[in-house]
Amino acid sequence: MQWRELETEPCSLARALAVVGDRWTLLVLREAFLKVRRFDDFQRRLGIARRVLAQRLGGLVADGVMEKVVYQERPIRHEYRLTEKGLALHPVVLSLVHWGDAHYAGATGPPVLHRHTVCGHDFRSVLTCSVCGEPVDARAVEARPGVPS
């Protein structure tokens, strides 16, 4: 399997990695979920080279994860907003953040807490079964072939 050919692999994880599998791309997504929208703000917060940021944002736009929207006409300026496809990545990014908190935060604890605005409590990611609602872990999942692609 070649890295540049991931999008053609008959594997959903490989195809997803072709879109978001780069460290800068995941950090751009993290910032987008923190309501960062403008190129200069992404660049300043991440400390990323402008060329690299332009490539990552361009890829996310091309893949339909973000959209480039005009927010000022003169001079013309754009911002980057998550699409529905991009918003669907929130549980993935949040799960990675919480995994990092559990395994790498150290004695000081997580650098950022996440509060559920509906109930007002801080929470941790939990994967649950869409049918019965029970928590799902790796030992409780059986993989089987799906529809051939």
Explain this structure.
By secondary structure, the chain is mainly alpha-helical. It is 40% helix and 9% strand. It is built from 6 helices and 2 strands, in the order ααααββαα. It has helices at residues 12-20, 23-33, 39-46, 50-62, 84-87, 90-104, and strands at residues 66-72, 77-82. The chain has a two-stranded antiparallel ribbon with strand order 1-2. β1 (66-72) and β2 (77-82) form a beta hairpin. The longest helix is centred in the middle third of the chain and has 15 residues, at 90-104. The radius of gyration is 18 Å and the shape is globular. The two termini are 17 Å apart. The model has no long low-confidence stretch (mean pLDDT 93).
